[in-house]
Amino acid sequence: MISLATLQEKLQGAYAGLQLVDNRGMMECEIPADKNLDIVSYLHKELGFQFLTDITAVHYPEEQGRELCVVTHLHNLVENTRLRLKAYVPVAQPDIHSLTSVFSGANWMERETYDFFGINFVGHPDLRRILNVDEMDYFPMRKEYQMEDPTRLDKDDAMFGR
Amino acid sequence: MVEKQHQHIKLAENSIEKETTTINLGPTHPATHGIFQNIMEIDGERVLKTEMTVGYIHRAFEKIAERRPYSQVTTLTDRLNYCSAPINNMGWHMTVEKLVGLELPPRVDYLRVIIMELARIGDHLICNSVIGVDTGALTPFTYVFQWRERIYDIFESICGSRLTTNMGRIGGFERNFTDETWKKIHDFMDTFPAMLKEFEALLTRNRIFMDRCIGAGPISAERALNWSFTGPNLRASGVDYDVRVAQPYSRYNEFDFKIPVGTTGDTYDRYLVRNLEMWESFSIIQQALEKLKGLDASVFHADAPEFYLPEKADVYSKMEALIYHFKIVMGETDLPPGEVYHAVEGGNGELGYYLVSDGGRTPYRLHFRRPCFIYYQAFNEMVAGGLFSDAVVTLSSINVIAGELDA
Fold this sequence. Notes:
Radius of gyration of chain B: 24 Å
CATH topology of chain B: Cytochrome-c3 Hydrogenase, chain B
CATH class of chain B: Mainly Alpha
Shape of chain B: globular
Structural class of chain B: mainly alpha
Radius of gyration of chain A: 18 Å
Structural class of chain A: alpha/beta
Distance between the termini of chain A: 51 Å
Oligomer: heterodimer
CATH architecture of chain A: 2-Layer Sandwich
Number of strands of chain B: 6
Largest sheet of chain B: 3 strands, antiparallel
């Protein structure tokens, strides 16, 4: 298990300014969005984080300029250490580098994150919707979209009862 | 009798036009076990490439979960990998318990282990028998389903449902296991080994099964890790990563079990790994039954009045119990703010729950790290260049469950 202090030291050497915190037992680090591919490649090559657990996003509409948070979970299987990386992007221009050049498994994970949050993964070979219909023109997991479609005329509240 | 001489006619390059066929395997097809589509480009019997389209059974669980109190999210988790629903349920409960910081009594953990391993046996029984079905062996499938029925009976006696169980609560189980449940569990344990041996005798050294499965859809350990494989598919390629051993939960560190691994990651390896895992699950249940012997049999939940419904007698006589009951049933319990990622070893691999709470009564964001979704991406790499019949058998051996694919 790599301790937080050791990992902080190793990261500090390459990327000064990155602060690792312990969030309920998992190490977490906020990274600048434009450097995500660099940092992940460094972690993959030099520090043994060769397993990509997941890529997803969270929408914080109140945080101006950093509404969408791209969360990447990495795992060092040999040292049995997990790491969470968070990169905040503005909703006006939600661009971030794709990790598909490092991890093949990032392909569908990023497509799903694009499908639901609209995050543009620059460098992704095939960025298109995966779970929703292709004709959908909004990103459903963003907080402004309601769970049910209010434009439907066929659901009669008197019959269904809410 | 004159031997007919075969004449091999060599055609000049580009002298004839060759067309490949694009066929649609799915979304509804008797050979695919779920609703997902493969658009395959084939050249005779050889698969050139396949494109996977998913999302036919997307039910927007992550969006719905943002509007459901924590105890109601369990019904959504059932429908992820619906062949082993209790594992998903317990994983969700453990995620909330991790967020809240709730410790469980040992008996609850051992009961959870028994249920999760029974669910894992059920899932692997389906997967292995279905690999047989895709090679033409229909008998082991119907034979083995009798034991899956017994597992269903056990689940039904605990929570009332067979498939989508909604089993357990945050802090333990909703009711103690009855004598009838224990009888069913012991009957299952008595009859299971003989059944699994018969099942193995039908398939494992079967000439046709071996010829179909050996070498079908292989994937190397490096590629499997790069595709973020987990679970039996990764272990069949040779990597011994199991969440129960790497980050033990529910006191799995107190149990003694092996992790079976394969070598080439082909269909036969995946079949063998799942088969051995069933034996290991059986051994874990035996160990859990042993461990339960010394413990107080009346304990089936943690002492957590804020999250676990109090006894009805107390609700009618004590004020605090009444308030807790009201708050829990109306879903008004606020959970502490914070983020947590909890992973369990599901039937198909690392099933992760990434929960972000803003201190409200519903999750702010809940993301399911679904192993099926992640490893199904690699299907093209596994079958391209191989025969079409290998592709069909590979598809059933990687155990893609459509519920977990789409969520």
